[in-house]
Amino acid sequence: MKSFTEYLWFNHPERVAFINITSQVETAVERSGVREGLLLCNAMHISASVFINDNEAGLHEDYKRWLERLAPHAPISQYQHNNTGEDNADAHLKRQIMGREVVVAITAGRLDFGPWEQIFYGEFDGRRRKRVLIKIIGE
C-alpha cells in the first residue's frame, strides 16, 4: 500500500471565497502513483472548509448569501466567541455547515467523480495563511 501526503497553502485577501482546487488535487493523485485507492482532502484550519459541488458562479454566490443569513458576520457582539478578542465566530459556524473534508475514490489513477463534481476550498476568515491536507492511500 502506498501513502502520499501533500499540502496546499492559501492566503486569500478576501474574508470569504470559494477556490476550485480540483486540478491541484488531480496533480497530486498523478504524483502519488496510486491507481486504486482513496483521497482525503481536508482543511487544517477551523475557519476554512473543503467541499464538493458544481463549479458554477451563481451557485457560489447563493452559498455566500445563504451562509451569511445563517451566520452573519456582524454585529460581532452577537457571538460569545468574539469576546475573546476574535471577530471570526461566524467563520467557525460557516465551516461547520460546509464541512471539513472530502473523501473521493481513485479509480484507474483518476478521481472518481460524479457529473459536475469539483473540489473547493472554502475560506470564511481570509487574510491569513492556511493549509489544506491532501492524503492519498492505495495501490
3D structure, described in words:
The protein is α+β, with helices and mostly antiparallel strands and 139 residues long. The protein has a single domain (2-77, 84-138), classed as Jelly Rolls. The chain is 25% helix and 36% strand. The protein contains 3 helices and 8 strands. A hairpin with a 2-residue loop joins strand 5 and strand 6 (110-111).
Tell me about the biggest sheet? 5 strands, antiparallel
Cα radius of gyration in angstroms: 16 Å
CATH class: Mainly Beta
| Second rung of CATH, namely the architecture | Sandwich
CATH topology assignment? Jelly Rolls
| Strand order in space, largest sheet | 1-8-3-5-6
Output the helix-strand order.
Answer: EEHEEHHEEEE
Number of domains: 1
The chain-level structural class is: alpha+beta
User: Mean of the pLDDT scores?
Assistant: 98
State the end-to-end distance: 5 Å
CATH superfamily: YjbQ-like
Question: What level of helicity do the residues show?
Answer: 25-40%
Short account of what is shown:
By secondary structure, the chain is α+β, with helices and mostly antiparallel strands. 25% of the residues lie in helices and 36% in strands.
